[in-house]
Write a structure and sequence with these properties.
Mean pLDDT: 91
Structural class: alpha/beta
Shape: globular
Radius of gyration: 17 Å
CATH superfamily: Bira Bifunctional Protein, Domain 2
Low-confidence stretches: 227-231
Number of domains: 1
CATH class: Alpha Beta
């Protein structure tokens, strides 16, 4: 029987590379324990990356979407790291809630396309809690407000266990986005909960609480669908 409990670990503020190594360790553990009666195959790491970092995927041409010079990045204390997730180039920093969801997709009866839609739908529910209506965009994965992206997404799947996940802009340093073409989508902008809600923007702690509750419910519901007998 699949345990539906989502295990959540709030990492606080952490540099990118240690968080990446932790993801890999948890992902490997989920793969090795598959089919057993050991702990839940669902994990969510919540983190704000500090120092700020620009991550570049292995997609051909991703590095061309870096607009800042090495000197500019150094002056702004922004790191540059290679990543193994899907997608293009993106930014992470304080004020942005990054969620690394490590899940056995077999236990959720999902494959890559369905999993990405699952992530988007769950973030829609998070934003709806705060009175923000997000939507999908045919040109790019993630969650959008009008023509601006508020939540970027990128994942990596190994033996049908996911890692990486979403990056929700709560109140990040928006000028840092000037250093990249976000997600490689020229002419598209980014926004944040702070820009949308202004003084009504919730604290990071409040957003974490809502994200945790919403993902717990979404994982449990999806796992239940997978385990229900067919009529």
């Amino acid at each position: 029987m699949v345990l539906c409990q989502l295990e959540i670990n709030d990492l606080g503020k952490m540099p990118y590379e240690p968080a990446l190594e932790l993801q890999r360790k948890i992902q490997q553990g989920v793969i090795e324990r598959r089919g057993g009666s050991n702990p839940s195959p669902f994990h969510l790491l919540l983190v704000e990356h500090d120092p700020p970092v620009i991550t570049v995927s292995k997609r051909p041409g991703s590095k061309k979407h870096l607009l800042a010079s090495t000197e500019q990045l150094q002056n702004a204390n922004v790191q540059l790291c290679q990543t193994d997730r899907g997608g293009d180039i993106t930014y992470h920093g304080p004020g942005q809630l990054v969620g690394y969801l490590i899940c056995d997709l077999n236990a959720l009866s999902l494959r890559l396309h369905g999993y990405m839609r699952f992530l988007e739908t769950t973030i829609f529910e998070v934003l709806d809690t705060f009175g923000i209506e997000g939507h999908r965009d045919d040109c790019g994965t993630g969650v959008w407000i009008g023509d601006a992206k508020i939540c970027a997404m990128g994942v990596r799947i190994s033996r049908w266990v996911s890692m990486h996940g979403f990056a929700l802009n709560v109140s990040p340093i928006m000028k840092h986005y000037d250093y990249i073409v976000p997600c490689g989508l020229a002419g598209r902008s980014v926004t944040s909960m702070k820009q949308v809600l202004q003084e009504k923007c919730p604290s990071m702690e409040t957003v974490k609480q809502v994200v945790s509750k919403t993902f717990k419910e979404s994982i449990a519901n999806q796992a239940q669908v997978q385990t229900e007998p067919r009529p």
